[in-house]
């Protein structure tokens, strides 16, 4: 083994790591340049000669290059002691003891072999990137370890890692840290750059770096589109002795390798890369980093079922990783295209993928494993909206039942290595009756491959156009994936060329995968999708009235169709007869403030035809009003004041949990919320609502009687007894109590009616004070108080001075506590 592989700080933790793994798991925190990805796997290979090790990396290009480097350190070819496996490609043999894989491969291996046979140590490298696959893979590995393989050892490694969080999942693990090996890197902040000027500024600073420095320049950009634009700008500058390379995941192996290696002609290199170059990759001769500070991330929108690729500022952890690339070989410089004060405002870590992407595959995979997402040992778990969208999709395609249990069909879907949508499409195409199945399946595997391609490098509005004109590496990559699915489905014969696919077959398989995105034209370039969302697709009018949508994007609140295929309505009726319906719908007409009936023909949530219907039954009207009220907050209901007062009293009764002495047994709980729909039976309410033609008539219904009678007798009695609608005041008259939404109880009464009294008033079995709104003889508010005795001794004297002259006919005694309460004038009292 070459000694150069150990000239890294990570060598210092080799011995404690080997000691730890003899007994337990390990968590390794090592900053950029420590050599953890190279030193530690080879050290474990040497220390444990009888063990087999799996090393997970987040990216395909890293897997290939790391395997090549580690094998070279052993003086061997890849596929001997060190091999690799990625989707559609593997270089392993019976001699392989260190296998480097992409993250998704581990979880599928465990699902097919729960004992993880032939694997002794699993290393999760660059775990800070927090992909769904790495999180899920670690969760499954922990279950294997705890349930079947207590001899299995797990190592979690990262350059920027919250070790405390990981330690909660692996409480027995030994935490080890290494120093980094990085030369000083000067940070140059350029100030905030306007988005429209970003590409030009990146090109300018890159050219400046080439002029002022002799080493190669690594430029970080958010995606392939930005890389292409900056490439054009730099090419126009005609920099002497400089060669420009691109580096991102969709490029072929040869192009990626050219970017990673030293230039054979000794020219200065500019490498325009996405965050694929942040970690693990060995890139020769980098002296300068130009960092745009941006990255593209996928954000799933559960309401539309679409994913938005949005550009955002990177985290502090990513900024540290990128900067570190300039300090591997010697002192370097990092140009950051943002303001220095903005650096401290960056998020500490990037949002984990599991919190922002579609969780349908994770949800179904967990059920297939025999557990649920909630029971998995995950650092973070998908939000309720993500899980709800996943459940809805899986239920619709028959992968789960109404009790959220996986179905036999769902288990077939789990066995296919793709998203449940695509797995469902492939199985439906394969099982299609008659001779059409073969042609549908040819289209299905090509569409599955095209759907998974995230490069966005497809030209044309229709999927048929794109597939018919595939060229170069893109065609090769999609063909490889299509053949993989062809083989997984155990199909015989040759896969047809993409140009031979029939447009109708392409449309049909897209519809099977994305039935909720089928779109109907509503205007020039405007469409309505089956999930109810509106969408834009400029220049698409000629495509016909119906589209199946393969790729869409949500930007803010607007949905855009990016790639689609026209479809005949007859095809949709054949595939989805149950989605077409004609019903009489009764809905509230805002302008007329009344219910209106229409005969409506629909495809899912797309209204195809709507025409008025002359008559409606009382039951139809009642149900329509009921549904309308469901959409309103109870505070917005058309209720009269008496009904609103009753609801406020009920809410106070629940807050005070008033006793119910008339209850025969254990008192029933008070309703938790004052929503009439939770109190009155739907059948009774629908019958009453069916008599109302207009909204204004709703307030005239006997709400208080219906509500009161709907309560158990014990609660009716307690409400009437402890929270009365009125109270007798010292003048001998009953005066109404006003119950407020916040629980406050107000008694508005003329001041003279309270003479002679100093005692506070209460309701609710003496637990809720009554606030007095003392009025003038003309009924105007003078004072609010809950302490009448203090009022008489205090502010009453000032009020008396002001009111005595204004209302001389009414009594204003010096001592109101001894004066008789009255509603009469002084003359009438004589």
TrEMBL record:
InterPro entries xref list: DEAD/DEAH_box_helicase_dom (IPR011545), HA2_WH (IPR048333), Helicase-assoc_dom (IPR007502), Helicase_ATP-bd (IPR014001), Helicase_C-like (IPR001650), HrpB (IPR010225), HrpB_DEXH (IPR049614), P-loop_NTPase (IPR027417)
Keywords: ATP-binding, Helicase, Hydrolase, Nucleotide-binding
Helicase ATP-binding domain span: 17-179
SUPFAM superfamilies with a match to the protein in the record: P-loop containing nucleoside triphosphate hydrolases (SSF52540)
A GO MF label: hydrolase activity
Helicase C-terminal domain residues: 200-370
Family matches, as SMART domains: DEXDc (SM00487), HA2 (SM00847), HELICc (SM00490)
Family annotation (PROSITE patterns): HELICASE_ATP_BIND_1, HELICASE_CTER
Region of interest (Disordered), ranges: 805-830
Transmembrane segments: none
Alphabetical list of PANTHER family matching this protein: ATP-DEPENDENT RNA HELICASE HRPB (PTHR43519)
Name used for this protein in its record: ATP-dependent helicase HrpB
Species this chain originates from: Salinimonas sediminis
């Amino acid at each position: 083994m070459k000694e150069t592989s150990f000239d890294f700080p990570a060598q210092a933790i080799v011995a404690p790591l080997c000691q730890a793994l003899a007994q337990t798991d390990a968590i390794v925190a090592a900053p950029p340049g420590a050599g953890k990805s190279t030193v530690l796997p080879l050290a474990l290979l040497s220390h444990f000669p009888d063990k087999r090790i799996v090393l997970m990396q987040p990216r395909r290009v890293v897997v290939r290059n790391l395997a090549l480097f580690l094998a070279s350190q052993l003086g061997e070819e890849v596929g001997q002691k060190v091999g690799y496996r990625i989707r559609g490609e593997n270089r392993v043999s019976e001699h392989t003891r260190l296998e480097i894989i992409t993250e998704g491969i581990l979880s599928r291996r465990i699902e097919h072999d729960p004992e993880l046979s032939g694997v002794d140590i699993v290393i999760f490298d660059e775990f800070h990137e927090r992909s769904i696959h790495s999180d899920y893979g670690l969760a499954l590995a922990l279950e294997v370890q705890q349930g079947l393989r207590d001899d299995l050892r797990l190592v979690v490694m990262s350059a920027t890692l919250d070790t405390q969080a990981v330690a909660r999942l692996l409480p027995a693990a030994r935490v080890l840290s290494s120093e980094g090996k990085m030369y000083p890197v000067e940070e140059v902040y350029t100030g905030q750059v306007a988005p429209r000027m970003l590409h030009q500024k990146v090109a300018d600073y890159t050219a400046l770096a080439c002029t002022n420095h002799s080493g190669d320049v690594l430029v970080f950009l958010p995606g392939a589109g930005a890389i292409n634009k900056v490439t054009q700008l730099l090419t126009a500058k005609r920099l002497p002795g400089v060669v420009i390379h691109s580096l991102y995941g969709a490029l072929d192996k040869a192009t990626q390798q050219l970017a990673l290696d030293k230039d054979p002609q000794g020219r200065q290199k500019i490498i325009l890369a996405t965050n694929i170059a942040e970690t693990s990759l060995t890139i020769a001769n980098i002296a300068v980093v130009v960092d745009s500070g941006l990255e593209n991330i996928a954000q799933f929108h559960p309401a539309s079922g679409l994913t938005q690729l949005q550009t955002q500022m990177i985290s502090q952890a990513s900024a540290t990783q990128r900067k570190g690339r300039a300090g591997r070989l010697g002192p370097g410089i990092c140009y950051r295209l943002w303001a220095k004060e903005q650096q401290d405002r960056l998020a500490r870590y990037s949002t984990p993928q599991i919190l922002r992407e579609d969780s349908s595959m994770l949800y179904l995979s967990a059920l297939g494993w025999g557990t649920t997402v909630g029971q998995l040992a995950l650092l973070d778990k998908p939000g309720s909206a993500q899980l709800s969208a996943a459940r809805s999709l899986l239920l619709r395609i028959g992968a789960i039942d109404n009790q959220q249990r996986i179905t036999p069909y769902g288990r077939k879907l789990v066995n296919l290595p793709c998203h449940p949508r695509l797995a469902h499409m492939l199985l439906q195409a394969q099982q299609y009756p008659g001779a059409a199945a073969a042609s549908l399946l040819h289209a299905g595997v090509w569409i599955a491959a095209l759907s998974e391609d995230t490069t966005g490098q497809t030209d044309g509005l229709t999927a048929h156009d794109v597939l018919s004109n595939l060229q170069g590496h893109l065609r090769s990559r999609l063909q490889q994936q299509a053949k993989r699915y062809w083989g997984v489905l155990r199909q015989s014969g040759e896969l047809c060329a993409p140009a031979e696919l029939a447009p109708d077959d392409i449309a049909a398989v897209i519809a099977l995968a994305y039935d909720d995105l089928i779109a109907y034209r509503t205007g020039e370039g405007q469409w309505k999708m089956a999930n109810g969302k509106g969408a834009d697709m400029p220049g698409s009018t000629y495509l016909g009235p119906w589209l199946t949508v393969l790729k869409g994007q949500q930007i803010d609140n607007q949905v855009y169709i990016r790639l689609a295929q026209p479809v005949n309505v007859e095809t949709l009726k054949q595939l989805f007869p149950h989605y077409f319906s004609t019903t009489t719908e009764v809905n509230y007409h805002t302008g007329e403030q009344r219910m209106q009936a229409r005969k409506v023909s629909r495809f899912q949530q797309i209204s195809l035809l709507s025409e008025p219907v002359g008559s409606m039954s009382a039951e139809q009207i009642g149900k329509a009003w009921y549904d309308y009220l469901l959409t309103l907050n109870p505070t917005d209901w058309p209720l009269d004041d008496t009904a609103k007062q009753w609801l406020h009293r009920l809410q106070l009764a629940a807050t005070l949990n008033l006793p119910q002495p008339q209850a025969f047994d254990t008192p029933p709980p008070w309703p938790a919320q004052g929503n009439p729909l939770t109190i009155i039976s739907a059948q009774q309410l629908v019958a009453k609502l069916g008599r109302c033609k207009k909204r204004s008539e709703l307030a005239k219904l006997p709400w208080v009687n219906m509500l009161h009678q709907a309560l158990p007798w014990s609660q009716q009695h307690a409400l009437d007894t402890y929270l009365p609608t009125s109270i007798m005041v010292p003048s001998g008259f009953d005066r109404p109590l006003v119950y407020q939404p916040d629980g406050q109880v107000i008694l508005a009464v003329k001041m003279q009616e309270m003479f002679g009294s100093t005692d506070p008033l209460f309701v609710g079995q003496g637990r809720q004070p009554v606030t007095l709104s003392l009025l003038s003889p003309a009924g105007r508010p003078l004072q609010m108080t809950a302490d009448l005795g203090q009022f008489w001794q205090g502010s009453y004297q000032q009020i008396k001075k002001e009111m005595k002259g204004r209302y001389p006919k009414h009594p204003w005694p010096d001592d109101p506590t001894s004066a008789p309460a009255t509603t009469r004038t002084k003359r009438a009292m004589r």
